[in-house]
Specification:
Structural class: alpha/beta
Number of domains: 3
Shape: elongated
Length: about 425
């Protein structure tokens, strides 16, 4: 072990290289392999030494400039076949001409960050960062397959000018895949990458008809659960229609107060502060029809608090009777038809208690990747999302890489400073 923390090398002190203007452009470190291992050539090798050759490998930065290891390698000539061979060196990625630790750090950084940020943090060229990322993505995603989860969530996300299908393991919160489209044929083709289909017991979705058809055909034993949020927002939607229709009938003084209350109208009563509740009550007192509509909307929320499916169905029936008693059946009929059309799937929630909230959060995370990486193609977006939020790389790898990068930089400087009065040689 040496101050560079690379086994198998004798390491010299780092040299700072400056340009004519005095700006630091790179740090160079001379390294000599200590291994006596001979390279493998033909069946009956006859190797003779043939001088040395210095190879440059990029390493983690110890200054605000690229760090290069100048590795002096023994060269050998095989008298049996005439080939030229070089002394093996550990910890190096010969394909990218860098240390393995730098390659892995750039891989994880390119997955978690934009390519531009990776360039700024690690001092590598953007083409190199993209090539390293693509190599990692190809290695892990070329034959990508995944086991079906017990609870599968599906939704769509508008990315790169088109609607894409997104599937998520609801219980673990991990992304399973992103499909180029969201039609039945796109989703069915995508499911070819999934194994152990019999695992799926619960299928979470919004009220998109194509998804329901796929679930019934491919997972006949799975319970389809309609997301709670998508059901409840429909109550807000129909209340808003009544509010818009009733607003012109209010006095001018009341209408002038409405703009500041629009957001409050969309909130649940228990979410409001005491002051907001007072302001809302003052406005509702000027219109019985608007007040009744607000009460109907709030009552629709409450049946979702039922402890069992039977209690929920009973509470919903009572809500329908409540609407009838307020003489607003016409206004709320579309909501009732929606519930009737999806009744079984909506009330399945009370047997399984899963929602698509995890899928919605994943959609936001994918959208953040898409927004930050302006100009990337679909395959790059899919690879970044799967490697960052899927099952392929554990979260601790990203945290450990960030910690290692910070600690390594501090340790290298401290050890180097302790090894000599002037740890850096300026050139």
């Amino acid at each position: 072990m040496n101050w560079l923390r690379l086994d198998g090398f004798d390491v010299g002190l780092p040299r700072q290289i400056h340009d004519e203007a005095g700006r630091l452009i790179e740090v160079q470190i001379d390294c000599v392999p200590t291994s006596s291992e001979l390279p493998v050539c033909c069946l009956a090798p006859r190797l003779v030494k043939n001088g040395t050759k210095t190879a440059k490998y990029r390493d983690l930065r110890i200054e605000a400039a690229p760090t290069w290891l100048h590795v002096s390698r023994q060269r050998w000539k095989c008298q049996g076949c005439g080939g030229t061979l070089y002394q093996p060196v550990p910890h190096m990625d010969e394909h990218h001409m860098m240390t393995e630790r730098l390659r892995e750090t750039v891989e994880l950084s390119s997955i978690k960050r934009t390519f531009r940020d990776t360039v700024a943090v690690h001092g590598v060229e953007e083409k190199l960062a993209r090539r390293i990322f693509r190599s990692r993505a190809d290695r892990q995603l070329l034959n990508y397959r995944f086991d079906a989860p017990r609870v599968l969530g599906i939704d769509e996300n508008h990315l790169l000018g088109a609607a894409r299908g997104v599937i998520v393991d609801v219980e673990s919160g991990k992304l399973l895949d992103i499909y180029e489209g969201r039609t039945q044929s796109d989703i069915r083709r995508g499911f070819d990458r999934m194994d152990r289909w019999e695992n799926v017991e619960v299928w979470c979705q919004d009220m998109a008809g194509p998804y329901k058809g796929i679930a019934r055909d491919l997972f006949p034993n799975a319970a389809i659960v309609i997301d709670k949020f998508h059901v409840l927002t429909k109550a807000n939607h129909w209340f808003t229609k009544i509010r818009v229709a009733e607003t012109p009938k209010l006095s001018r003084d009341v209408r002038e107060r409405l703009p500041g209350l629009i957001r409050i109208f969309d909130m649940h009563w228990e979410q409001l502060s005491p002051r907001q509740q007072v302001r809302l009550a003052e406005v509702l007192a000027h219109s019985k029809r608007l007040s009744d509509a607000w009460a109907i909307k709030e009552a629709f929320y409450y049946w979702y608090d039922a402890p069992t499916r039977a209690d929920a169905e009973r509470a919903y029936t009572e809500w329908v009777q409540f609407v009838r008693s307020k003489d607003q059946m016409t206004e709320w009929q579309p909501l009732m038809k929606m519930v009737q059309r999806w009744r079984k799937e909506i009330f399945n929630y009370f047997d399984h208690r899963y929602t698509s909230g995890v899928v919605e959060r994943m959609n936001r995370s994918i959208a953040d990747i898409n927004r930050a990486g302006n100009g990337m193609d679909f395959q790059t977006l899919r690879a970044k999302a799967l490697l960052r939020h899927g099952r392929l790389i554990e979260e601790w790898h990203f945290k450990l890489a960030a910690i290692f990068q910070m600690v390594a930089a501090l340790a290298l400087l401290a050890i180097c400073a302790a090894s000599a009065d002037q740890p850096f040689i300026s050139v």
